């Protein structure tokens, strides 16, 4: 194996991908498997470069000394060449010398040969009055000049990419000199080039307490679910009144397991139906876009129709309530079997299809977090299917079964007001998720996290059986609330839902189509990755505002259960802990990804939901 040439911490000259220009960078690490250096530019951008794209500073000094000792005519030619137009530089004129033309053709030919390493996004900056400022894919060394850009997504053919960049996209002064800011509110232009193909490296930073933490969670999560369900069955569900351990044979019934399998495969059939539009997800690390069929809401309608038919024929849905613990055990067993299958198949997956956060090389950690990013059987995406279908729609069915069980057990002609509120609030949440199904393609679960035990258990067990905890609690512990109290709780839930939906809509629409005219009023900070950081609307008020809406809604779901016991509020406590972890992870991830742009964003939006936690 060849030895590395440059050491960690060494300051060298790195070529910016897709160009022939070199910049001063610092070597941060080296991947022995991929033979790639991770370097950091002065603006905070980190990229993986080949050794051939890195040169020592001494070689550049040697060239400079040679240039300074050349003849006057040679120096004049060099000065002429330094003014040759690069991608994004304003055209100074159409006349070129013979040496300029030859160099221009050579550079153009070299860049065309390197289109596989072309920069993902080219940002064209507005020139200032005193110094014409340009940005042709390289990091800028100064940040004082105000800039303005227009975002236009284009897919260019490989043989036309460089030609259009070199010859057509020249900077011109804007006619109307408007007031500019560090945050860009005017029209913006991105020219989307072929993205840099990255070779996945080993996961270095382990979450959830590393190997020991993930090993513990594999047992702790199922135990937590069974403990909560056992507590709800007790007459006194206080924390000090620990429930007795049930007999093992009472936890399993093959008929129940068969119903779980039938439910899973029924939702799979609905997923495969050729209804609904097909959309592309965000680009993967290799530039590929996966296709997804958006028909979750149709699956919900078909499921509701099937439930209606069963009710018409007087199917006893309280069977689900009577065997609720057995259903939870069956779902947990199925999720474990699915996780084992996912990990075994991931061992044969190509390197570029592995999850960036689940490629540590440690069996337990990768099994828990998910080793493969998008496991598919043909066009059937397992992670995307489980994200919204079996668990989320199953949550609504469980709530309905609890409502019917309450009416039968307590001989009610109609469900209690508390049960109606819980069912209505959570039904709104599920319908919203399915109606906005396309938005899930921009979440961390899809674009970053692998599909392993964490998501499989969370989607198939935690969501349907823990999120329905309030409805399950109300069956055995009926709570009476007045209409004014119900009205106040409804207003609280509407406030949380409004914050949650409006914040997520702003983020998702901007992330998928930044050039949408409807988003022209949004301000953002551009980053070296080509993406923007929103600083208007909810995202200019507080970081991660969608989490704020989640917490308010979770509280509204628990309030109808009263204050006799803390058990119905477990979901609120869990959700706060979950969001603390997610917000801390997002902060760390964004700081690494966006560098100085994230620091500017934090100065602009200093408020956090949990300011003193991390």
UniProtKB/TrEMBL annotation:
Domain called Tudor: residue spans: 4-62
* Annotated spans, Disordered: 53-110
Where composition is biased (Basic residues), the residues are 76-97
EC code: 1.3.1.70
Transmembrane helix among keywords:
yes
Record key words, sorted: Cholesterol biosynthesis, Cholesterol metabolism, Cytoplasm, DNA-binding, Endoplasmic reticulum, Lipid biosynthesis, Lipid metabolism, Membrane, Nucleus, Oxidoreductase, Phosphoprotein, Receptor, Steroid biosynthesis, Steroid metabolism, Sterol biosynthesis, Sterol metabolism, Transmembrane, Transmembrane helix
Catalysed conversion reaction: 4,4-dimethyl-8,14-cholestadien-3beta-ol + NADPH + H(+) = 4,4-dimethyl-5alpha-cholest-8-en-3beta-ol + NADP(+); 5alpha-cholest-8,14-dien-3beta-ol + NADPH + H(+) = 5alpha-cholest-8-en-3beta-ol + NADP(+); 4,4-dimethyl-5alpha-cholesta-8,24-dien-3beta-ol + NADP(+) = 4,4-dimethyl-5alpha-cholesta-8,14,24-trien-3beta-ol + NADPH + H(+)
Q: Extract the PROSITE patterns matched here.
A: STEROL_REDUCT_1 (PS01017), STEROL_REDUCT_2 (PS01018)
Give the transmembrane ranges: 212-231, 251-273, 294-313, 325-344, 447-469, 481-500, 521-542, 562-581
Q: Which domain of life is it from?
A: Eukaryota
Q: Which GO terms describe its molecular function?
A: Delta14-sterol reductase activity; DNA binding
**What membrane topology is annotated for this entry?**
Multi-pass membrane protein
Q: Describe the family membership recorded for this protein in Swiss-Prot or TrEMBL.
A: Belongs to the ERG4/ERG24 family.
Protein name from the UniProt record: Delta(14)-sterol reductase LBR
State the organism named in the record. Answer: Platysteira castanea
The taxonomic lineage of its organism, from the top, reads: Eukaryota, Metazoa, Chordata, Craniata, Vertebrata
């Amino acid at each position: 194996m060849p030895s590395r040439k440059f050491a960690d911490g060494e300051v060298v000259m790195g070529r910016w991908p897709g160009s022939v220009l070199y910049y001063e960078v610092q070597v941060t690490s080296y991947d022995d498997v991929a033979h790639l250096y991770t370097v950091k530019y002065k603006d905070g951008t980190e990229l993986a470069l080949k050794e051939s794209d890195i040169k020592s500073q001494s070689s550049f000094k040697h060239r400079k000394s040679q240039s300074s000792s050349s003849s006057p005519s040679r120096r004049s030619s060099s000065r002429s060449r330094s003014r040759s137009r690069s991608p994004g530089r304003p055209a100074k004129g159409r006349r070129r010398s013979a040496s300029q033309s030859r160099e221009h053709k050579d550079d153009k030919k070299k860049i065309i040969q390197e289109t596989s390493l072309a920069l993902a996004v080219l940002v064209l900056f507005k020139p200032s009055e005193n110094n014409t400022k340009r940005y042709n894919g390289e990091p800028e060394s100064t940040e004082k000049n105000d800039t303005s850009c227009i975002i236009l997504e284009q897919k260019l053919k490989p043989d036309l990419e460089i030609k259009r960049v070199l010859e057509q996209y020249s900077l011109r002064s804007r006619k109307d000199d408007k007031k500019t800011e560090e945050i860009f509110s005017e029209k913006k232009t991105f020219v989307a080039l072929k993205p840099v193909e990255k070779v996945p490296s080993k996961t270095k930073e382990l979450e959830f307490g590393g190997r020991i933490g993930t090993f513990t969670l594999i047992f702790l999560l199922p135990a937590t679910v069974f403990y909560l369900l056992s507590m709800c069955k007790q007459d006194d569900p206080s924390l000090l009144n620990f429930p007795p351990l049930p007999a093992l044979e009472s936890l399993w019934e093959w008929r129940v397991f068969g119903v779980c399998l039938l439910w899973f495969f029924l939702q799979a059939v609905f997923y495969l139906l050729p209804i609904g539009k097909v959309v592309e997800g965000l680009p993967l690390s290799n530039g590929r876009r996966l296709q997804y069929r958006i028909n979750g809401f149709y699956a919900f309608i078909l499921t509701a129709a099937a439930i209606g038919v069963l009710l018409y024929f007087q199917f006893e849905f309280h069977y689900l309530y009577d065997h609720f613990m057995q259903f939870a055990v069956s779902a947990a067993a199925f999720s474990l079997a699915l996780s084992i299958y996912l990990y075994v198949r991931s061992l044969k997956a190509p390197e570029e299809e592995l999850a960036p956060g689940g490629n540590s090389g440690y069996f337990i950690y990768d099994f828990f977090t998910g080793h493969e990013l998008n496991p598919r059987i043909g066009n059937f995406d397992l992670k995307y299917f489980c994200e919204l279908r079996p668990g989320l729609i199953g949550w609504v069915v469980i709530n309905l079964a609890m409502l019917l069980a309450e009416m039968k057990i307590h001989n009610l002609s109609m469900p209690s007001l508390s049960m109606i509120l819980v069912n209505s609030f959570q039904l709104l949440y599920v319908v919203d998720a399915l109606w906005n199904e396309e938005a899930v393609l921009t979440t961390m679960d899809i674009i970053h996290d692998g599909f392993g035990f964490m998501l499989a258990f969370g989607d198939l067990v935690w969501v349907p059986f823990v999120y329905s905890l309030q409805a399950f609690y109300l069956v055995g512990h009926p709570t009476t609330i007045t209409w004014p109290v119900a009205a106040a709780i409804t207003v609280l839930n509407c406030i949380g839902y409004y914050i949650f939906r409006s914040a997520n809509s702003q983020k998702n629409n901007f992330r998928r189509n930044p050039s949408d005219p409807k988003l022209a009023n949004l301000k953002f900070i551009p980053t070296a990755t080509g993406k923007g950081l929103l600083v208007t609307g909810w995202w200019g008020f507080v970081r991660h505002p969608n989490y704020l809406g989640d917490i308010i809604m979770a509280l509204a779901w628990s309030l109808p259960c009263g204050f006799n016991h803390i058990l119905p509020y477990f979901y609120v406590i869990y959700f706060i802990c979950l969001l603390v972890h997610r917000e801390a992870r997002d902060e760390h991830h964004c700081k690494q990804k966006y560098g100085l742009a994230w620091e500017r964003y934090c100065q602009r939006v200093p408020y956090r939901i949990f300011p003193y936690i991390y």
